[in-house]
Amino acid sequence: MKNMKETDIQGVRELIAEAMRFRFACKEYDPTRKISEEDFQCILEAGRLSPSSFGFEPWKFLVVENAELRDAIKSVSWGTQTQMPGASHFLVILARKPAAMSPDSDYIRKTIMIETQNFPEDVRAFRTQKYATFLASDFALAGNERACFEWAARQCYIAIGNMFTAAAMLGIDSCPCEGFQKEPLETLLAERGILDRDVYGVACMASFGYRKEPPKRPKTRRPMDQVVEWLK
Prior knowledge:
Structural class: alpha+beta
């Protein structure tokens, strides 16, 4: 990418802008069209490679293919009533809970810092202290279970956004879903052995597929000068 010519970069700019104009919150999908395995793996990879605070990756992506489970999720998710029937792929995005994200947890110390990031001991000690300070005073999250979970969920939304952008660049539609009953949904997943409630909670859900019909109205957004302020 770093050796791209200006003409190539301009082409990428146009592709990104075109994808953003194409993307909309698709509420009804064409049930006869399915996303290829290669394309959906690309979408998942965009999520997996997403940035997160401290690089801690507090997410897990559940790809729900089982039809009966989809129906069960639909029963406690008012926001999926028109999406679920035709969606090619459906994701439940989990965020790690505070205990699973504490500085001394096995996940942070072993899975992330040792096995994933390959940090030497001195770097691990330094980053652990920085993270503890971040939780205790920088963001003052320590001791607030809900705030800690929502902080982890915010990292998940970075991954979701990247998956939506990747999908749009492939000509694939998507839609986020927060229209669900959190407690019943987590109970449902826990009772089926899918969700360990000591470790994870549901952050969001998302559907992917191909639009059944074009958007009924053009994309509307506030103008750039109302959204961006340059501080010089």
